[in-house]
Specification:
The chain has about 475 residues and is of the alpha/beta class. The chain is about 40% helix and about 15% strand. The protein starts with a helix and ends in a 5-residue tail after the last helix.
Length: about 475
């Protein structure tokens, strides 16, 4: 990354003023959507939506005003400084726009426009020309061929996504813009909140490595999730990841693992995917966690953002149904974790308040008629057990089940405990009790296997931190 990295990237995420070059009055156009997102935070009719608080300057020589904002013929005509330009004009005009930005003194550009290296040799030549001008003028670029940039905590939606995700502790970086829009929808269903949400497209300038280093020191970011199709500079990425991982957990979904996927990557972004074995080894060396599905990516990121790392791999499972407990045990074993062996004194204490038919082993099956209080007492005992490093809590709906009361007692029972907890409220998707657990920092993941996978991410994080603290890091 160029010198002054943090200050340079601040212009993308903490701008005071933004110009939209290619702003449009026509609904359905990208330039129209970007203006509306900046003004309102979303293109949808949503109550309490809130837009960017700084100055917004539409740039279009064919318009006098757009959405009530004065429109300018060129960025050079805008009064005062412009921290960030969002460029949505056809690719052939972008070099001229970059020259005008340089004259204006604007030093950051999100180039949403497509038609560059992803489209063939002529587009690649055009991308090189844009980079040459940017380098000469001292301009940093995100894109081209991207969805844009979102930072929720200052209501910045400099993208053409139709909604802004909820605020939260996860920074997400994606090489695919279309995936970003799908993830925003998914995030509402799964109660996932984001601090930063970045589509980097062709990665002509600012890339994964730059953003890793930036988010490592971002006060709003607690975990970083990456979707990668290819890396242009693997060594640089490894250096950045090794610097970032001690500060913030990093979860990576790398596609293009197969020959077919690698070919698709090349046609999509114009870049080569490379050997998957090499990527696998590199990620392992950096301490980042590699996953293989979108669901795993965000389950892990959510757990890592809210829960402490596990000090070991001995996990207790608490459940009101035997089958889901077995499923969790299987998945924990598959992930290389162990079911905690419960000491005799712990079994005796559990005997004192659990029904005679409880499992008397781990998974701790507290039976289908389990009350919220039974969950609470069991968690109190297990959270104080030295032989337990983490707890997976499972609830299935029975006639007598009280999901919300149980969720509240689970939260209270583990408050202040420095052991990770994940939860699966099986068959209760969309219920307030699920949302409550998530809002209180306990990741609720619907199914036992997902809760076990999230726990595995926390065990992985604990191992990585112990390696770092033990000096096994170079």
């Amino acid at each position: 990354m160029a010198q002054g990295m943090e200050a340079g990237l601040d212009r993308f995420f903490k701008p005071r003023s933004i110009a939209v070059i290619g702003a449009s009055r026509e609904a359905g156009k990208v330039g129209n959507a970007v203006c509306e997102n900046l003004l309102r935070g979303t293109t949808k009719e949503i109550l309490h939506a809130r837009g960017f608080g700084g100055a917004i300057y539409p740039v279009n020589p064919r318009a006098d005003e757009i959405m009530g904002l004065k429109c300018y013929s060129s960025i050079k005509d805008v009064p005062g400084e412009v921290d960030l330009a969002v460029v949505v004009v056809p690719a052939r005009f972008v070099p001229t726009i970059m020259e005008e930005m340089g004259e204006k003194g604007t030093r950051a550009a999100v180039i949403i426009s497509a038609g560059f290296s992803e489209s063939g040799e002529e587009g690649a030549r055009l991308e090189r020309e844009v980079l040459r001008i940017a380098s000469k003028q001292g301009i940093r670029i995100i894109g081209p061929n991207c969805l844009g940039v979102i930072r929720t905590h200052n209501h910045l939606n400099a993208s053409f996504a139709d909604m802004m995700p909820e605020p939260g502790p996860i920074s997400f970086v994606s090489q695919s813009g279309a995936l970003c829009t799908a993830v925003i929808q998914y995030s509402f269903e799964e109660s996932i909140g984001f601090s930063n949400f970045v589509s980097i497209g062709n990665k002509a300038d600012v890339d994964d490595a730059d953003l890793l280093e930036y988010f490592a020191s971002d006060e709003e970011t607690q975990a970083i999730a990456l979707y990668i199709e290819s890396l242009k500079d693997g060594r640089r990425f490894m250096e950045a990841a090794k610097k970032t991982v001690p500060e913030k957990p990093v979860v990576i979904l790398k596609s293009g693992r197969t020959e077919a996927g690698a070919r698709a990557t090349s046609s999509h972004t114009g870049s080569l995917s490379g050997s998957d074995a090499a990527y696998e080894a590199a990620f392992r060396q950096t301490g980042a966690l590699r996953v293989y599905t979108i669901m795993e990516l965000f389950d892990a990121a959510k757990a890592l953002a809210y829960q402490p790392p596990a000090k070991g791999d001995r996990i207790a499972v608490v459940t009101n149904a035997g089958g889901p407990g077995v499923m969790a045990a299987d998945q924990l074993y598959t992930r290389g974790l162990r079911l905690a062996e419960l000491p005799k004194d712990v079994v005796k204490e559990l005997d004192s308040f659990l029904p005679p038919a409880w499992s008397r082993s781990n998974p701790v099956d507290i039976l289908g008629d389990a009350t919220p209080e039974r969950y609470g007492e069991t968690l109190r005992v297990l959270s104080g057990c030295e032989e337990v490093d983490g707890i997976v809590v499972i609830l299935t709906p029975q006639v007598m089940t009280r999901p919300m009361e149980t969720a509240r007692i689970v939260v209270e029972s583990v408050r202040g405990v420095r052991k990770p907890v994940t939860a699966a409220w099986v068959g209760l998707s969309g219920r307030p009790s699920e949302d409550y657990l998530d809002s209180e920092g306990i990741p609720e993941l619907t199914f036992p296997e997902r809760a076990a996978d999230a726990m595995a991410a926390l065990v992985h994080r604990g191992r990585v931190l112990r390696r770092i603290q033990g000096g096994e890091w170079s």
